[in-house]
Amino acid sequence: MDKLFKKRLIVILTLIVALASCRKKEFDAYYGRPATLADPIYQQLQARGNFTSLLYCIDKAGYKDILGKSGYWTMFAPNDDAFSKFFKEKGISGVDQIDAITATGIVKYALIFNAFKTDRLGDFQSNAGWVVNSAFKRRTAYYDSVYTEVVNGKNIKIIASNRNGSYAFADNNNKYYPYFIKSYMAANALSAADFNYFFPEVAYTNFNVPGGNVVEANIVAENGVIHVIDKVNTPPQNIDQYLSSHNEYSEFKKVYDRFLVSYVYSPEASKKYQILSGSSDSVKVKTYNPLLSFSPNNENYLKLTDNDGQSNGWTLFAPNNAAFTAYLNSYILEYYSTVDRLPLNVVLDLMNCHMWQSAVWPTRFNNTVNMFGEEARFDPNSNVIDKKILSNGFFYGTNQVQKANVFHTVYGAPYLNPAYSLMIRAMDLSAMKTRITVPKLKYTVLMMNDASLKAAGYDWNNLNSTFQYTPAGGTTVIGGTSPTNVIRMLNTHVLEGEVSSFSGAGVLETIGGEYITYKNNRISSSGTMDSTDVSKQSIPVVKIKGADFRQATNGKNFYVNGLLSFTTKNVGEHLKKYGTLPTDPFYGFYQFLFNNPICVNKTTIEIQGVSLGVNYTVFVPNDAAIKQAVKDDILPGTVSGTTVTPLYNPTTSVDIAKVTKFIAYHILNRNTIATDGVKNGSYETLFKDSNGDAGIVVIKNQLNNLRVTDMNGRTSNVITANSNVLSNRTLIHQIDGYLKYTY
To answer: Hey, what domains does the chain have and what are their CATH numbers?
Structure first.
């Protein structure tokens, strides 16, 4: 029985083995490694025989196993000739003098995640798919770990931020490997000049790496692709590291360190470091202010998509110590004793104007803009004294600063002077800054100082980020009409175009559409003219010591002593000012206005159809013209021989209608016109004909020679001596005739 069982068991086991053997053959035939499959990267490098130094580094870095089996890599593999040059550069005799840290850096930086042949290296892997000809970098296996930095005299453990203004623990902040491939270069209008600007000693061959050439491309391996290169590249510094290690930019770096860098404790990074190192030290993240264009230690670019670092990188133009110090002392610090006293917004603008959120290629200085929309204002041949392609972007050391529009246009004078901080608040609140920082558009700015605004009751409320108003002896009102009022005054202090001088006499339109007048370096506004004190009806243009050197690129700044305020009175009140006495120039016109229903409020002299916040022009016929209108039965009154007596207070509906239509036809609607020779053409009045259409007048305007032609072809001339009277968004002119309407 036992013998029979043993025989059967032997037969069964034999069958099982035979069956298993058959199945294994079938499995291997289907799933086994194909005989035609290329060897892994490590074995291919061995077989080729000219990568002995690289293989030594791979072994020393502990990457033999990784590169000797399945995977998905691209390797920029330096051959032995490349290492021979490397040994000579480093002053060493051979590969055995390369330590483990250097070997690891060489290997990990040469390794790119995923396999890419040349047909894809120029393309960007976006979340939505491939974007052709849009990439010049790939993420490598190399990243920096915790390092020691001296902060405030103490050694602390630091890890770099891997986002702009923040840190993501799970991200290693891997460095990128740049390359110069024909598909990308041609599609982006780049050429050999862009490559040779950084590497003048190397010929551009349509596929280059930093400082070298790709001598053989697209070697397919089981675990990726090999591109053979003739240059050993060690992991480059990022912008933060390069700036920190080059003392010639230390003054520029000090501003980052003083204002814009913080060190934030990271419990996750600390725990990881303590486990790996056995140390009890905590780790802090070196973080840059999030209001900067970028964090110079962030290797990841914007990280809006996972791979956006393939398609772009940062650029920093760093002025050397001599250039930066000279600029600070001669320009930025005119009203500040030290850099430490600069406002943060000035510091941010000073640094951000040197930072680009994109790669500024050498041939593209003129058309690659920073966050302010400004091109790189450097001559690549004479102003750039140091140029490097770093792991997260381009670095240009310069012998001059970037002259930002915020500092060198008419915005700069108040911006860099703390005595004008409220004016800057108003400019920023009203978007005036955007307008007057355009270098090609000319402006004139009358400087509105803090002292004048505060004397008028206005100030900035930091808690609510708005203006406030405190009337004399009254209660402070935060917000409300305060911002609107300050901005309206600001608009009265800014003019389009460049005014060379206020020494003569004239009238000028401000950027808000209201007008100011000037004479002998004194300027008046509608508000100043309301003063009963003649000395306060205008404010003087004054000289400020040292201010003349600041020549704006787009106009002029004038310093004034006082505030060009606006009137709160109605237009009718200014007609009254010059129309109460029979000898006043506006007497006849005003009397008709005041004594008729068109004057809807006898106290404020509010005119029917004239609204606050709207621009107008009033043409006031002189006494002779008023009497002629009575003679012509356009206005009510009596004529006896040569004696003409206007009826200022008519009672019949017919006569009242005459007055109403007459006055309405002498007021331009929604437009203010001065005797400055600027505005010409047809303009609507407040008058409506029987069809409801607005009555039109035609303006022919030359400097100090303004003529008005009515619907009947009759022309009246403006009498300049009694004109350009400043009112509420309105100018009042006297004319030598009257305007005849057709109803």
So the answer is: 41-143+207-234 (2.30.180.10), 256-402 (no CATH), 407-560 (2.30.180.10), 571-735 (2.30.180.10)
